[in-house]
Amino acid sequence: MADKQIEKVIIIGSGPAGWTAAIYAARAALNPLLFEGAINEENARNGTLPLGQLALTTEVENFPGFPPGDLSGYLETALPEERRAYLPPHNKHGVTGPELMELMRQQAIHFGTRVITEDIVDVDFSVRPFRLKASNGETYESRAVIVATGARANYLGLPSEERFKNKGVSACAVCDGALPRFRNRPVAVIGGGDSAVEEATYLAHWASKVYLVHRRDQLRASKIMAQRALSHPKIEILWNRVVDEVLGDDENGVTGIRLKSTVGEPDLTIEVSGMFLAIGHTPNTAFLKGQLELTDKGYIKLTKPFRTYTSVEGVFAAGDVADDYYRQAVTAAASGCMAALDAERWLAGQES
């Protein structure tokens, strides 16, 4: 380890938080090294491939600076040809998730971020400099670390669900609910907690009807949230039901869902243009193995208000790995900026 370069800052994760942290760290002359994740079957299965959850979405209508329009010419000049080869044809209606993430990646590289396409599988934050082991077997050392590994949405695990992801199946109503596919058409929300009611209430602004599908006969949501769903004229709760199959075709995407009963009643098929999962998220923190303090939901615990400090001095967290509330690309990017500034100032303090 004696001849190993000691990095100023290593960034783990390649979603909006990770790339924004890299942009700010690179512009601050910290020469950041970013681990964007490995490209393998396990990451594909878990939804943890490079570029984060946003790369798994299609239209992005709510990221500032990207109104509807044809970006094809800009993408040709902004992205290298070899990276454009990974992208689907541009839809000419504004930026897509994969395009936005490629643009963030290229911006970070432009300012000098070095990128390694591997996972960090083990960390030791008890030593200085910090020690990190990658999936290629290499070990790296760094004075500061920014963890931006995100959180993945929980899905039901149905083959039909997988088939229609981004074609009517979504795990984020705020991200996708206003899309033309769902406007003035019925949709379904799966879940029974506060998040499910929030998603259903939000979707009711756009959809003609919202079915709230819950496996029990009583919502897990707080009383005030449950009452909001029960009293809403556009929300119908389907009790004691679980999704058996997502129905649809390649041309139209989701057209309905078949529901099984948990109390022995006959199957029920409803016509919907979309199915929104609200059954929780899993933060990508397993690799930490107890090195950082986590919340009771498994997210990294931030230890100081309005800062990205974690329980270990010199380790910072940004994005959905430390946020179980907002979970938006723009808030993740903002916290990535904060983490880079926090790391820069902390490192400066160490030098002085």
From TrEMBL:
<keyword id="KW-0285">Flavoprotein</keyword>
<dbReference type="InterPro" id="IPR036188">
    <property type="entry name" value="FAD/NAD-bd_sf"/>
</dbReference>
<dbReference type="GO" id="GO:0004791">
    <property type="term" value="F:thioredoxin-disulfide reductase (NADPH) activity"/>
</dbReference>
<comment type="similarity">
    <text>Belongs to the class-II pyridine nucleotide-disulfide oxidoreductase family.</text>
</comment>
<protein>
    <submittedName>
        <fullName>Thioredoxin reductase</fullName>
        <ecNumber>1.8.1.9</ecNumber>
    </submittedName>
</protein>
<dbReference type="InterPro" id="IPR008255">
    <property type="entry name" value="Pyr_nucl-diS_OxRdtase_2_AS"/>
</dbReference>
<keyword id="KW-0560">Oxidoreductase</keyword>
<dbReference type="InterPro" id="IPR050097">
    <property type="entry name" value="Ferredoxin-NADP_redctase_2"/>
</dbReference>
<dbReference type="InterPro" id="IPR023753">
    <property type="entry name" value="FAD/NAD-binding_dom"/>
</dbReference>
<keyword id="KW-0274">FAD</keyword>
<keyword id="KW-1015">Disulfide bond</keyword>
<dbReference type="Pfam" id="PF07992">
    <property type="entry name" value="Pyr_redox_2"/>
</dbReference>
<keyword id="KW-0676">Redox-active center</keyword>
<feature type="domain" description="FAD/NAD(P)-binding">
    <location>
        <begin position="8"/>
        <end position="336"/>
    </location>
</feature>
